[in-house]
Amino acid sequence: MKRYIEVIFDNSYSMMTTVANKPKHEHAKQIFKDVVLPFLDFNSDDVAFRLLRNGCEEFSKAVKMADSIELTQNVYGVVNYNNNTPLFHTIRDSIDTCQQNSGSYDKMLIFALTDGEDNCIDYMEEVFDELELKKLGIELDMLLVQFAVDSEIQTNNLNGFSQFIGAQTIQVNGNQLVDYKLAKSRLNKALSKSVLNNSYLLPHCFDTSLKGKNYTWNELELQGYLRYWAGMLFREGLIQWDPTAHNSLNEAEFRELKFLCALRFKSGFPAELMKRMFLQLSSPYYYCLDEMYWDFADAKWKFFPTIPKVEPVINPDRYKEIDDNPLSMQNNKFSSNIASRNNYRNHFEKYGEGNCYEVIRHNEDMLTFSLKSTDISKNMKTLMEGDRITFREKRHPGRPRKTQY
Q1: Rg of the chain's alpha carbons, rounded to an integer?
Q2: Do 213 and 251 form a contact (C-beta atoms < 8 A)?
Q3: Cis bond leading into 284, ω under 30°?
Q4: What is the pLDDT of residues 18-67, one digit of tens each?
Q5: Which CATH class is domain 3-192?
Q6: Distance between CA atoms of 30 and 185, rounded to whole angstroms?
Q7: What SS3 state is found at 46?
Q8: What is d(CA 209, CA 207) in angstroms, rounded to the nearest whole number?
């Protein structure tokens, strides 16, 4: 199977924040080299590298990598972290590139690592059309790694964004980076269960350290798991423990028996399909059917994606990264975004109850606005905290009349 994979790396200002005694981006680079890179196969995968958009308005560019060495050099070569986080538009650029290249690949994947939510003025509903995403017409998977995102609001909103665009998401908390080996192990296990893993051999759902009760054969047979079936599985080499020598099973052995009985005796699958299914699993068969399923279209096992129940909320610190960056106001790439946001914010603070204002656009080339006092109260709308507004172009003669607020 030929795959096209885009790797999006966060080069925002907040990646210079120190976590576990060194900047986030140093942790991210090491994690990428040690954990993410081994999942990429340059013999069968075409891999492209993309940084975040250079500000909210410019386009991002994906550069195809020749091999793992070039990709590693590009990741470690990122040294400029004076950007904000135009996450929505960057992933939108990546999706557009995937659509353009879809005819050459069996599968396409977007892998994005970010340490915070989008902080441009556009909301995800304005950048992505949910119906459009469902009708892309290409085999596209998306995986979003939340790297050292310790704000509960940001985590919630990134979960909501992942759910909105149909992406899987993995969280690596900042406090986990204190013990690098543990963080590496957790992320490796999470990636093994993600769409990034193209290996047919699935990792186990649990191990021998699983704690639980012991089950007697009388209890097991009452649940429909016959000792005779266990004997057949032992003779066929599917289980390594002899049921005639075991008067009870521990939790791990019981779950293994439960999984094997479902496939071998309860499914009714033909023998040839059974052989193929077991080729993608490893003994001992510590798997759970409530965590994984057999995809008949792809003829392989897959884990169910984790879909958190979330509702995006207004984040009062959404623009903190821009406000904290000492270069942001001096850099043209931020100017129109910040000017329009701050211009509206400053005038909104002066919006007194009972007063009426109209929106004035200052410059055709810059998205900067202000509010001008007016006595005309027609079509006035009162803004409440959390309301969203869109600044529209002025009505031109000959066009249908639109209500202006």
Answers
A1: 27
A2: yes
A3: yes
A4: 999 999 999 999 999 999 999 999 999 999 999 999 888 788 999 999 99
A5: alpha beta
A6: 13
A7: strand
A8: 5
